[in-house]
Amino acid sequence: MKHTKRYLVGVSALLVLVVGGGVALGRALNKDDDLMEDTTPKTMDVILTEIRSLMQDYSIEAYIIPSVDAHNSEYISLHDRRYQYVTNFTGSAGTAIITLSKAAFWTDSRYHLQAENEIDPAYWTLMKEGVTGVPTRDEWLLSNLSPGAQVGTDPFLIASTEYERLGAVLAQHGYRLITLERNLVDIVWNNRPPQTSEDLRPLALTYTGQRASEKVQAVRVILQENSANAIVISALDEIAWLLNLRGSDIRYNPVFFAYAIVSHGNLHLFTNPDRINDTIRDHLKAEGIVVDVRDYRDILAGIEEYVRGGNRLIVSTACSQALYAAIPADQRIQQYSVLAKLKAVKNPVEATGMRRAHIRDGAAVIRYLHWLEQTVDSGNVTELSGAAKLHEFRSVQDMFVDLSFTAISAFGPNGAIVHYSPNEETDLPITRDGIYLIDSGGQYLDGTTDVTRSVHLGEPTAFQRECFTRVLKGFLSLGTAVFPVRASGTVFDVLARKALWDVGLDYGHGTGHGIGSFLGVHEYPPSFVSNSASPSNQGVVENMFSSNEPGYYQAGEFGVRIEDIVQVVKASVPYDFNGRGALTFYTNTLVPIQQRLLDLALLSATEIAQLNAYHRRVLDEVGPLLLQQDDPDAFQWLTDATKEIVAS
Q1: For FRET with 180, which of 120, 162, 427, 640 sits at 20 to 30 Å CA-CA?
Q2: Dist. CA 262–CA 232, nearest whole Å
Q3: Are 548 and 511 in contact (CB under 8 A)?
Q4: Which residues pair with 315 in a beta bridge?
Q5: Does the model's pTM come out above 0.70?
Q6: From CA 9, how far away is CA 123, in angstroms rounded?
Q7: How far apart, in whole angstroms, are the C-alpha atoms of residue 206 and residue 447?
Q8: Beta bridge partners of residue 561, listed in sequence order
């Protein structure tokens, strides 16, 4: 039986003193969580007033609140949603900055419309990143600070690379970036949800394809290559992957709160010791590893032991400033996460599992789309009830564990909000009068899925057909590309956008992200984005998995996105890039593309052939499972949905 414990996690359990340009870290009693008696929700006015009072106590003029946790996680627990507490914004990415008289919130284009709906302009200024004329965080700070001012932040919630970059920018103008001994939001957050510490789940070799001892040995080889004595691991998905363990401390993410240190002779795991029971101990023994389990809060003490011994430690470029500052510069080796690169390349068992998981997931989505078309005229289907029905179809599939994220079930104008999540206030009925976008996924023991389909159950307009078809053209161009080993992700981003760019259309999000094997739905590398300097743009190699998800969004009207998960596989071409090696993509997702939204005049004969071939695969691979699940009506719907397109 699962349990939730009040387990202290994060900077509030530590004392951080500013010393010159760095930080000194020590122990302190945590009083934030346990002495709060009045849990009456505070108004925005009270929250900001109390934070500003604390800012004056700490002699800072600005306080930065990122949208990550101490592990730089994209998706975080309710306990760590500090930015949401102070802004009411529920998206997964953004940065809040509070000064003594102003408050501003930055988020990227995925969330511009959502933030407009959620943030109160009486207290906050919304800064839409990427929009002409909108100041960057740096620019805004520089224009709102008085001479010699200090800017504060939590050292556990800012990446060391960002701390160094921003600190240098501020220093050039006579300002100073400092870390504070306590998180100011934690101090005022009187009704903060408790931290989670759920039971752990061992993942069998049947699903992982590689014992933990082999993974640890691979890490130790990297230590040897870098003349390092140990590596500090702070990313939660990397620890789960390394130990072949899964958790549920963060909703829809099978990870658990922990740090790890791997040296040539030891493996230290910093987590809640209470959950290392006999089952987990037996698992670790079977995996061929000996693990020294310590309390989660002892990570800095663990690092200090290695530092005192004169050891050289590797840390990731994504690690927090708190961990980074705990290691002297001459003992520190910082580089892009070596575990992220290992984890991104799936072994044969993982790759096979991902393919099988997508067949079952395809059956769930197809059954849902069939149900939707049969039920929509009842007038009782809404974004929320539709998402719940899709969850129901997924839950009956073999090896299903949970969803991989909250479904983006978006009808009509809500579809133009890229990462829209319906709630009771925004829940629209799904009808035949607009485009319905459903972006969803599942966590299965043998794989993680993420699929988006856009459908119109009535008669789409000519413009909607054009937008959908141009998105499809980019989708097909990427999915059938042949490219050299370690090609940059920017190549694929351009391929996916070209048909839209041809007529002056575009979309404001990346084209592809990596995905875990029963791990995070977003994983990096790979990354298909326009920014070639993105740290996660590490080049594409065989057996990486990525999404392929171009889209188009007409504000206030509709959104279109098509998304599959593709696997990087070897390609056979005459010249093989002069021995460099040729690669292409194999599409794992198996859900038909709606033909009603196509403008066939915009598709070439080659593109129509590609779509027909894909639809034959969908019918051949998912059709038998639908019959096995005793759903002949869904099978007939699939047969109709995959009928051959004949070019006129």
Answers
A1: 120
A2: 7
A3: yes
A4: 334
A5: yes
A6: 30
A7: 12
A8: 551
